[in-house]
Design goal:
Layout: H1 3-28, H2 37-40, H3 45-52, E1 56-65, H4 89-99, E2 113-125, E3 129-133, H5 134-137, E4 142-146, E5 152-161, E6 166-170, E7 193-198, E8 206-217, E9 227-230, E10 242-244, E11 250-257, E12 268-272, H6 273-286, E13 292-293, E14 296-300, H7 303-308, E15 317-322, H8 328-331, E16 338-342, E17 345-346, H9 350-359, E18 365-372, E19 375-382, E20 384-385, E21 409-411, E22 414-418, H10 421-426, E23 436-441, H11 446-449, E24 457-461, E25 464-465, H12 469-481, E26 486-492, E27 498-504
Antiparallel strand pairs: 1-2, 1-4, 2-3, 3-6, 4-5, 5-6, 7-8, 7-10, 8-9, 9-12, 10-11, 11-12, 13-20, 14-15, 15-16, 16-17, 16-18, 18-19, 21-22, 22-23, 23-24, 24-25, 24-26, 26-27
């Protein structure tokens, strides 16, 4: 064997080992070939894809961006805004960084320019109605729909819903279109096969398949989270594309992924079709969302709160406050009520109530089942309309005032005082707030863990109003004697917003 041959053999040895390992793996896995085809994936994927692929479109948008003056790295602002992960991103990044105002470049003469972004969508009506994500078209000056065959048509915005991240577009069809219909996402089963189709980067439709990993996922991205989770590959640029069942029906809109790298790691989320269909109908009809409104503030029923309210097992949505101008007030719903059923639908947690109320028609009279002092009651409520405001709530940055001395009573790790005019002024507590003020909290107590703080006002103890510190001490001592493990407090902040807090009395 020559030296060259030996060197070549040495270089090829790892590859040969890999080939051998692969061959061994094939031999070891040979019995799998006898497993039915459905165990490896359904045969119908190709049929579904062929039937619906022309209904999936690319959404291309452009936006005018003001120039960023100055040298240095500012020149990079002219770079086209391709979706992260685009095969062209590295090229443009290098070009604009090095030649258009990056280190060594000249970026002082920049002009207002256009930026572009890409996403996916799908046709739901042959008249030219397209569904996509709101974040795909947000702030766009111009929106274009690019068909699977490359045809490009200018589209108009029909309406958006930021809370579900959905948008509806319309365009004039240049030729007959293929449209898809919505299926019933409520009938999805865990492990069921689904197909994700997108049109990223306007390269044409891309098809991936996987299963339903979970349903009703709440990832805290919005007030009505109830996502379908799937391991079908969903990548950047697929936002707004449809998720199909094997009948070719849309059962979700691909919206989010969790990924440290920007690519699919098998954790994707789709807005379920039941939500999408309702939003699309309202946007087409009104150009906006008209959600039901109950007029309450709600919180979780923890095990401690459930024990205090004699509710077994812990469930429902606890009413922490009632809007004076809302529909719940005249219906007789009160703070401390726990909603366990709304319009015939079981309420297991607060998110359930938020979603079902929002999905209920404005003006509809519904039965609401509440647990009040251990007993179920049914009240009738006529829903109002939720005002859709996106105004941010400003956090208070004022310093916490020094606690007033002396303290009248101590209980539950709290220093308590009767609410005087001086204390009301010191803590800026509204005149409408009545109760016993907390002037200090023991940092090692359960109260500190539950985030009670100086300036909070205890309005009720075990659903009985209190007016002075002695009342609180007396009620807590009695609950201890009765063998209760916890005490339920109704607490108000300085502005009168209420919440329930259960504290251990042991």
């Amino acid at each position: 064997m020559t030296g060259a041959t030996e060197a070549l053999t040495h270089r090829l040895r790892p590859l040969l080992a890999a080939i051998c390992l692969g061959a061994t793996s094939v031999l070891a896995s040979a019995p799998v070939l006898s497993v039915p085809a459905l165990a490896r994936g359904p045969d119908g994927i190709a049929d579904v894809a062929e039937k619906v692929i022309d209904a999936v479109v690319n959404i291309s948008t452009s936006q005018t961006v003001e120039a960023k003056g100055g040298g240095g790295g500012e020149g990079r602002g002219t770079m086209p805004q391709l979706p992260p992960g685009s095969p062209f991103e590295e090229f443009f990044d290098d070009f604009f960084k090095n030649r258009r105002g990056g280190p060594g470049g000249k970026g002082g003469d920049l002009q207002p320019h256009k930026t572009n972004s890409l996403g996916s969508g799908f046709i739901v009506d042959t008249s030219g109605i397209v569904v996509t994500n709101n974040h795909v078209i947000a702030d766009a000056d111009e929106i274009n729909v690019i068909m699977n065959d490359g045809t490009k048509i200018k589209a108009e915005l029909v309406g958006v819903d930021k809370k579900t991240d959905l948008a509806v577009l319309k365009f004039k069809p240049p030729k007959p279109l293929t449209a898809v219909k919505f299926g019933d996402s409520d009938k999805l089963r865990l492990g069921e096969w689904v197909i994700a189709i997108g049109n990223p980067f306007s390269l044409g439709g891309t098809v991936t398949a996987g299963i339903v990993s979970a349903r009703n996922r709440d990832i805290n991205s919005g007030p009505y989270d109830s996502y379908i989770q799937t391991d079908a590959a969903i990548n950047r640029g697929n936002s707004g594309g449809p998720l199909f069942n094997l009948d070719g029906e849309v059962i979700g809109v691909n919206t989010l992924i969790i990924s440290p790298s920007g690519g699919s790691i098998g954790i994707g989320f789709a807005v379920p079709s039941k939500t999408v269909a309702g939003v699309v109908d309202q946007l087409r009809q009104f150009g906006e969302l008209r959600r039901g409104w109950l007029g309450v503030r709600i919180q979780q029923v923890t095990d401690e709160i459930a024990e205090s309210l004699n509710i077994k097992p812990a469930r429902g949505a606890l009413i922490a406050g009632v809007d004076d101008k809302g529909p719940a007030k005249p219906a007789g719903i009160e703070p401390g009520d726990v909603v366990v059923k709304f319009d015939g639908k079981d309420i297991k947690e607060p998110k359930d109530l938020s979603r079902v109320v929002a999905d209920t028609a404005v003006g509809k009279e519904v039965d609401v089942v509440v647990i009040r002092k251990g007993q179920e009651q049914t009240v009738k409520v006529t829903l109002g309309r939720l005002e859709d405001t996106d105004k941010p709530v400003q956090a208070s940055n004022k310093a916490q005032p020094e606690p007033e001395k002396p303290v009248t009573q101590k209980a539950l790790g709290l220093d308590l005082a009767t609410l005087s005019k001086d204390l009301r002024s010191r803590y800026k507590i509204k005149d409408s707030v009545k109760g016993v003020i907390i002037t200090n909290v023991d940092g090692t107590s359960d109260a500190a863990d539950k985030r009670l703080s100086a300036g909070d006002v205890i309005v009720e103890v075990a659903q009985e109003a209190v007016s002075n510190a002695a009342d609180v001490k007396k009620r807590v001592d009695q609950l201890k004697k009765d063998g209760k493990k916890s005490v339920l407090l109704l607490v108000s902040n300085a502005d009168g917003e209420l919440r329930f807090v259960a504290l251990s009395v042991q």
